[in-house]
Automatic annotation (TrEMBL):
Gene name per UniProt: Lnpep
Pfam entry (one): Peptidase_M1
GO BP: peptide catabolic process; proteolysis; regulation of blood pressure
Protein name, entry field: LCAP aminopeptidase
Keyword line: Aminopeptidase, Hydrolase, Protease
Peptidase M1 membrane alanine aminopeptidase domain sequence ranges: 7-102
Keyword Protease on entry: yes
GO cellular component: cytoplasm; extracellular space; plasma membrane
Segment forming the signal sequence: none
Keyword Zinc-finger attributed: no
Tree of life domain: Eukaryota
SUPFAM superfamilies referenced in this protein's UniProt entry, alphabetically: Metalloproteases ('zincins'), catalytic domain
Single GO MF annotation: metalloaminopeptidase activity
């Protein structure tokens, strides 16, 4: 319950146009300090939970083990974690490409789901809680690779989960 409260507080900050990406190039020590705030840590934890759910617990765990083995007693960058996950998925999913869309964009997407009979359509757009004119920038190019999981009337979360990667504006 406390974690959800933290996530929702972080999402409120991240839904403002004045937010910042989880990962970006920095030029000064002041910019480095600005990057290590609650938003970065909480959003980062949420992104890892999303990835774990999408990949499954066992695949995610194996990717973490590869990452820790490859970078023990050394330095690492975020790409190193995604590369380790790619090793485990054996090219079936480009984890780096998917996760880059989450860490280099500020904010998060709003996914709209429309059902028309047996046809399900999904569409994504950047969610903004409040537009701040002094910090406004165009977000038309924002595109996330969104792992969507769902169930049907033939299965539930304990027996089977279907997955779909929304990597376009609509699908």
């Amino acid at each position: 319950e406390d974690f959800l409260t933290l996530i929702f507080k972080a999402m409120m900050k991240d839904a403002l146009n004045s937010s910042h990406p989880v990962s970006s190039a920095v030029q000064s020590s002041e910019q480095i300090e600005e990057m290590f705030d609650a938003l970065s840590y909480i959003k980062g934890a949420s992104l890892l939970l999303m990835l774990k759910h999408y990949l499954t617990k066992d695949v995610f765990q194996a990717g973490i083990e590869v990452y820790l083995h490859n970078h023990s007693y050394g330095t690492a960058q975020s790409d190193d974690l995604w590369d380790s996950m790619n090793e485990i998925t054996s090219g079936t999913l480009d984890v780096k490409k998917m996760m880059k869309t989450w860490i280099v964009h500020k904010g998060f997407p709003l996914v709209t789901v429309v059902r028309n009979g047996k046809i399900i359509s999904v569409q994504q757009e950047k969610f903004l809680y409040r537009v701040e004119p002094e910090n406004w920038t165009s977000d038309a190019s924002y595109l996330w690779h969104i792992p969507l999981t769902f169930i049907t009337n033939r299965c539930n979360f304990t027996h089977c989960t279907n997955a779909y990667l929304l990597d376009q504006k609509s699908g």
